[in-house]
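hiii, so i know i said id send this last week but things got crazy w the move. better late than never?? heres the sequnce for the chain we talked about at the cafe, plus the structure i predicted for it. fair warning i was half asleep when i ran it
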Amino acid sequence: MTATAELTLATSAVTELRRLRDRSPVGNRLLDLAEVGGLTLEHLRRLVGIELQCHIAELAAYGTVIARFSDSPVVGLYLDVARLVYDAHPKLLACVRPLGMDPAAAGRWPSGPDAQAFNGWVSWLALHGGQADNALALHTDMTVYFPGCQALLEAVRKQGLDVPQEFVDYYEGGQSDELERRALEVVEHGLRNGEDKATAITRARQLEEHIGSFWTAAAHTG
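okay and structure toks below
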């Protein structure tokens, strides 16, 4: 299944998520800071530290999804997404020293509910969610997170914050139309095989809210 016309159930789910986003946007506290010129290197250090933790959680979660749905189109998608995260991890680690972070603490700092919210939801969804739930959440992650990163880089440049090139190299990477399409194919597969669309939408929306917590944790100081 590759034609957009065949992704009717998945497309309608994405449309509903967009309506929810328009009616009740999930905030980005890091961009709120940027709007008033309040970004500091400490915020970016926190961002990198949280994201390093997210990578570990994502790899474990994606492996769980593969194990649970090993006879479905989930496998090919999540193998490629896991490879993307795996390859990105050393690029993110390359930001640690240039940002003045403690390498010994990389992946363990910062902590707290907001810093760990995304990890907890991805892990729960991998254990309890269906194919459509996980794939729609993944699609939401890709379509929300990457534009947020692009907006953050633009804000960093606008503010004139001096950041290492390693940070720019990592966060300027864009989203993949191919992976987004394949995620929708898995959503369609799950929905056509009896999974509940309303549940998938609710859980994807919760994923987006947890991305909001991710930005909040990065924006926190003190």
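btw The mean pLDDT is 95. thought thatd interest u
miss u guys!!
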